[in-house]
Write a structure and sequence with these properties.
Largest sheet of chain A: 13 strands, antiparallel
Structural class of chain A: alpha+beta
Helix content of chain A: 25-40%
Low-confidence stretches of chain A: 5-19
Number of strands of chain B: 11
Order of helices and strands of chain B: EEEHHEEHHHHHEHEEHHEEHHHHHEH
Shape of chain B: globular
Mean pLDDT of chain B: 93
Largest interface: A-B, 81 and 89 residues
Number of helices of chain B: 16
CATH topology of the largest domain in chain B: Cytochrome Bc1 Complex, Chain A, domain 1
Oligomer: heterodimer
Strand order of the largest sheet of chain A: 19-18-17-16-15-14-26-25-24-23-22-21-20
Number of domains of chain A: 3
Radius of gyration of chain A: 37 Å
CATH superfamily of the largest domain in chain A: Metalloenzyme, LuxS/M16 peptidase-like
Strand order of the largest sheet of chain B: 1-2-6-3-5-4
Number of strands of chain A: 26
Structural class of chain B: alpha+beta
CATH architecture of the largest domain in chain B: 2-Layer Sandwich
Mean pLDDT of chain A: 91
Radius of gyration of chain B: 23 Å
Distance between the termini of chain B: 65 Å
CATH architecture of the largest domain in chain A: 2-Layer Sandwich
Number of helices of chain A: 20
Distance between the termini of chain A: 129 Å
CATH topology of the largest domain in chain A: Cytochrome Bc1 Complex, Chain A, domain 1
Shape of chain A: elongated
């Protein structure tokens, strides 16, 4: 019998084993049926003075939060930028019945909190203190005393805060972005400075408070452990004396897009990372039908850890700790933009990747998988947000403020679901710029500026968002000497031994001069030892010819002919001395001076001077990039700039191919059409 | 009227967090909290490994691992860890402290199993490959630049801890040394994974819209087969007494001087740590607190001042952080800071202050467990550090048992010069040049 029982037990055990959940590790589990999240319900009522109150009851925890919000138009503070903010702080800095210290003590004693701002007041704490919290709220709202000493203190704190922000790359980036996109005379672009804070008076703050803290433009949001009935009774009583008054309406023109892409930079010499933002102003008010498609586009591009920006810039390139995009919804204007903090050395490469990804989402239709994933992610995020009852409150508030349909947020998920790939492509094109994008960079200009010219004109701003001179970058790099620069150049040209081995060269070039009827042809030839020839012709006519041979020089052409002597002869002699001019530098090296490393036209260059001539060598290639000199002419002193635009390689040696020259007001391009070397060079050229 | 606002002795029953907990045979500790309010679930795994478990020549390993363990597994391709969660409508992340590494997924509740799959894959056979190591090395360097090197005052904690602890691994901070990470070989990463990422060093804590019975079955299916590893031995370094105040001046890219004082602290579970927590409330809990009122409102020498216990499993630091107002110096702030600490040592705090900090603790406690992610994390923390997840409901008693005398006693015992490191952050522009120093 016992045995029988055992076998039953064994059978039972076997049964439970088979009843166990089986899993397949090689695949992600399939989800169960989803529960649709619900938005907490709210009720609203209006007090006689016009204050609209929203109540979301939430009795899960014995706590309460009450927030008063002003719905006012943006304000330009102008030369007193900051006064609105100080006015907000002053509301909590004492009332006619409580000093600031008494107020602080009373709030802290309840373990509660009180915060006041330029368009809000919030109190929160345990719900057993609801009456006391309402008393505090109504006292600061109805009886602020604006004490002079607190005002002085807040002003100095604000000045200190500005100093604390002066080295904060994020704070600087915020100022820069606003100033660059909207300009300093716009509510979204103006920047607080020491000067503007100093100009603020206590009267400014009082006037602001009296004008704008009015029930007819205010909303009160109550969330937590309170009934609607209680809220109505208590707030109605406490805020009865708050008087309505007309509040000015302020309107602004919509901000225009820039006409071309531009780079705006704040130089922060101590930076080891660049704070990069790229984007544009958009016009997307609350309730707009494009909001959901743009949310999906943004999610695919840079919404999180699965976004293309994060995947590309972090997981593939390891340029950054994180790269994201986002956009705002605003009745006036907001922005679409992408951002990352990247190490100095990859700042330009990171911008290339940003532009690549923005371009891709604007031109390639998103895949069905991308679309499904983005919708799932955004739906999930919406669901998570509902864990906090404050979401329901902010939805209710938006519905009232912006006149949205009452089921606007209830329908959010279905609106999201109905977005198509075509919608995403359309809004990407409409709201994300690529040809006229603004790129803001806060970083070490000396290290990063060189790479930025490729993206647009680089403009420099200071930390307060004001345009400033571009920084001078000249500095002495460690361990670099004149010989390093020259040797680097010789190596880049093909190696000093190869250069020395050249015995003759003949170059034919054409010069296009604006305003001249035809092309000017220029023949130059050199042969070792000591022969030089240069001939300029136009339409078959010799304009000028110079010849140096056996120590003698002569000139012929339209401006007359004859033997050369004096300075002209010496000049010709020096031209003839080396087949490769640059080898001659070593002989008179004491005349050269290495001045350091700098940035020229967005390139990192070494700067070398010789008397009144300056040479710039490109760090990236080692080659000569540009030279400048001043020349005496019958018309006076002119400055001549020669820029090598293109090089060509023949038999392992590099020669200049396209050269741009600016002499005073004249500018022309020299193109070398053919080059012959050594035995290919005809001796007859020097006759 | 104020007298009416006294502490009410009993806690509201609605704040009680119910949970179930048990161990799998392989040692994985499981904690489950069921709450159907919102259709979401937080799936979290806490590994009891942090920077204090690192070798002195391989600092930064634990945090680096946190990055590496998003690279995939035998069944999850590189880069897909994130997308599985995101595409399911979830969010995920992780963080690393001196004492632990914590991973979490916040999912729609019908996707809870996905979290179990991902976390069990991470625990069973994570993918540790050269490409992931190379990529994440650079990413971590960027994280350090962003959080420390390019951030005003960003280096303060590193500077504090390396002076406050000499022998104990609290000497370094989780971000660690980039040189160490550069030097580490692939097999060292493998060894670290085998040593610490084992079920008997982990707590799986889930909170939200779940069915406990069904969840248990799924947990068994996903985790029971993961082999137990050798038990992890936590470091037992005896740190010698600091033996005198250490003062360091650090020149940073800043404009406003700042001063940080760090005092060695006892372990976070000790009675004295609770007394120090209450002490920090007296000093800087709200605008009416002693240090805030004195330095910010009255003397106006500081723009900001905080006192807070940086409590760790084996000690930590009681920190005061003060940022000077424009035009004020560290010397201007010092008397206020020193005197407020001396006052705590010389006399008992008032009955009213005592009541105030009790009220603050009660308010924080009641409001702390409002979200599933926080509940899952707290349960795992309490289990790991206190050996009792139910601390989520009872910890308030620890605060309540602190007396005014305790506060005076810990101020006298710990907040003394011989037990502290002082960091003075000054603008680089004030750094003496070599010539001036001669």
């Amino acid at each position: 019998m016992k045995k029988y029982i055992y076998s039953i037990v064994a059978l039972f055990a076997a049964f439970t084993l088979t009843a166990q959940v089986t899993i397949d590790r090689s695949n992600a589990p399939t989800p169960g049926p989803a529960r649709t999240p619900t938005i907490a319900s709210y009720e609203s009522f209006e007090l006689k003075n016009g204050l609209k109150v929203f109540v979301v009851e939430d009795h899960k925890l014995p706590r309460i939060s009450m927030t008063l919000l002003l719905d006012r138009d943006p304000i330009i503070e102008g030369e007193k930028a900051g006064y609105v903010s100080i006015a907000g702080d002053m509301i909590g800095a004492g009332t006619s019945t409580r000093t600031k210290a008494e107020l602080d003590e009373e709030v802290d004693f309840m373990g509660a909190n009180l915060s006041t701002g330029s368009s809000s007041i919030n109190v929160g704490g345990l719900s057993k203190y609801t009456d006391n919290l309402i008393t505090i709220l109504s006292d600061v709202l109805l009886n602020p005393s604006f004490p002079e000493d607190e005002f002085t203190k807040l002003k100095s704190q604000m000045t200190s805060g500005l100093q604390a922000n002066a080295d904060d790359p994020d704070a600087i980036s915020g100022n820069l972005k606003g100033a660059a996109l909207y300009g300093l005379n716009h509510p979204y672009g103006e920047v607080m400075t020491d000067v503007s804070v100093e100009a603020i008076t206590l009267e400014d703050c009082k006037a602001y408070f009296n004008t704008y803290f009015r029930p007819n433009i205010a909303y009160m949001v109550v969330i937590g452990d309170i009934t609607v009935k209680d809220a109505k009774k208590k707030l109605g009583k406490a805020l009865k004396k708050w008087e309505a008054s007309e509040v000015p309406a302020l309107t602004y023109a919509k901000t225009a897009m820039p006409v071309a892409s531009r780079v705006v930079m704040v130089d922060k010499p101590s930076a080891v990372q660049s704070v990069v933002w790229l984007g544009n102003v958009i016009d997307l008010p609350q309730g707009h039908v494009d909001i959901e498609p743009l949310r999906i586009a943004n999610q695919i591009l840079g919404g999180g850890m699965s976004g293309r920006l994060f995947t590309n810039l972090r997981e593939d390139k390891a340029f950054t700790y994180g790269a994201y995009s986002n956009f705002g919804v605003d009745q006036l204007n907001s922005t679409f933009g992408a951002s990352a903090k990247v190490r100095n050395g990859v700042t330009d490469s990171a911008i290339v990747e940003f532009l690549y990804e923005i371009d891709r989402i604007r031109t390639e239709q998103a895949s069905e998988d991308d679309l499904i994933a983005a919708k799932a992610s955004l739906s999930g995020s919406f669901g998570r947000s509902l864990e906090s009852t404050s979401s329901a409150a902010s939805f209710a508030l938006n519905i009232a403020r912006y006149g949205l349909p009452t089921d606007y947020y209830n329908n959010y998920l279905s609106r999201l679901e109905s977005v198509t790939a075509e919608d995403v492509l359309r809004v990407s094109k409409q709201y994300m710029n690529i040809e006229n994008i603004t790129i803001t960079v806060v970083g070490k200009a000396q290290d990063v500026a060189a790479g930025l010219n490729a993206f647009g004109t680089v403009e420099y701003y200071n930390k307060d968002g004001q345009p400033t001179e571009s920084p001078t970058f000249l500095f002495m790099p460690e361990g670099v000497s004149l010989m390093n620069v020259f040797n680097g150049y010789y190596t880049a040209l093909g190696g000093i031994e190869n250069l020395k081995a050249l015995t003759a060269i003949h170059q034919e070039a054409s010069i296009e001069i604006p305003g001249m009827p035809g092309t000017l042809s220029m023949n130059t030839a050199k042969m070792s030892p000591g022969s030089f020839m240069m001939e300029q012709t136009m339409q078959g006519m010799t304009v000028m010819k110079m010849l140096y041979k056996d120590g003698k020089g002569e000139k012929s052409g339209m401006q007359g002919s004859g033997a050369l002597e004096g300075e002209e002869l010496e000049d010709l002699k020096s031209q003839a001395a080396y087949v490769v001019d640059e080898l001659g530098w070593l002989v008179e090296i004491e005349k050269f001076n290495f001045e350091g490393q700098t940035i020229l036209d967005g390139k990192s260059v070494y700067q070398v001077s010789k008397e009144d001539k300056t040479f710039y060598f490109d760090l990236a290639t080692g080659l000569l990039y540009k030279s400048t000199e001043t020349q005496e002419t019958p018309q006076g002193e002119i400055s001549v700039t020669t820029t090598v635009r293109e090089w060509q390689e023949i038999d392992g040696i590099k020669f200049q191919k396209v050269i741009e020259q600016t002499a005073g007001p004249q500018s022309y391009v020299i193109t070398v059409d053919s080059i012959k070397l050594n035995s290919e060079v005809k001796k007859s050229l020097f006759k | 009227m104020l007298g009416a606002l006294v502490f009410s002795g009993s806690l509201s029953a609605q704040n009680q967090i119910e949970f179930e907990e048990y161990d799998l045979d392989n040692g994985l500790h499981v904690i489950l909290h069921e709450d159907h309010t919102t259709p979401i679930a937080a799936v979290t795994v806490l590994y009891h490994v942090g920077s204090k478990n690192e070798e002195t020549e391989r600092t930064g390993f634990a945090h680096f691992f946190e990055h590496l363990l998003f690279e995939g597994s035998e069944n999850i391709e590189r880069g897909e860890f994130d997308s599985y969660v995101t595409n399911a409508g979830g969010a995920l992340n992780a963080n690393t402290s001196q004492d632990r590494t914590f991973y979490f997924e916040l999912l729609p509740s019908n996707q809870m199993e996905l979290g179990l799959w991902l976390e069990s894959e991470r625990m069973l056979h994570a993918n540790i490959q050269t490409i992931g190591v190379e990529t994440q090395r650079e990413v971590v360097k960027e994280e350090k630049r962003q959080r420390v090197d390019n951030q005003p005052y960003g280096s303060w904690l590193e500077n504090m801890m390396k002076r406050l602890y000499s022998d104990h691994p609290y000497n370094w901070v989780p971000i660690g040394s980039m040189d160490h990470l550069n030097a580490a070989k692939l097999d060292e990463f493998m060894a670290f994974y085998k040593k610490f990422y084992i079920p008997n060093n982990a707590t799986l804590s889930i909170a939200g819209d779940i069915d406990i019975a069904k969840t248990k079955e799924l947990i068994a299916a996903y985790f029971a087969d993961i082999p137990r590893g050798a038990d992890v031995v936590q470091p037992t370094v005896q740190e010698p007494a600091l033996g005198g105040e250490k003062v360091a001046i650090i020149y940073d890219n800043i404009q406003l001087p700042a001063m940080m004082m760090g005092y060695r602290m006892p372990p976070q579970t000790s009675d004295d740590a609770y007394a120090l927590q209450m002490t920090s409330s007296v000093l800087s809990g709200g605008p009416s607190s002693r240090m805030y009122k004195r330095l910010v409102d009255e003397d106006q020498t500081a723009l900001q001042v905080f006192a807070f216990p940086f409590s760790l499993e084996q000690g930590g630091a009681f920190i005061t952080f003060s940022l000077a107002n424009a035009g004020k110096t560290i010397d201007d702030m010092t008397p206020g800071l020193e005197e407020e600490i001396q006052k705590l040592q010389n006399e008992l705090i008032t009955e009213r202050e005592f009541q105030k900090i009790q009220n603050q603790m009660e308010s924080n406690f009641i409001q702390s467990n409002s979200k599933m992610a926080g509940i899952a994390e707290s349960l795992a923390d309490y289990h790991t550090y206190y050996g009792d997840a139910n601390y989520i409901n009872t910890e308030i008693e620890r605060y309540r048992s602190v007396t005014r005398e305790d506060i005076q006693r810990v101020a006298k015992k710990y907040l003394v010069k011989d037990n502290r490191v002082v960091l003075k952050y000054l603008p680089k522009s004030e750094e003496p040049t070599a010539e001036a120093a001669e």
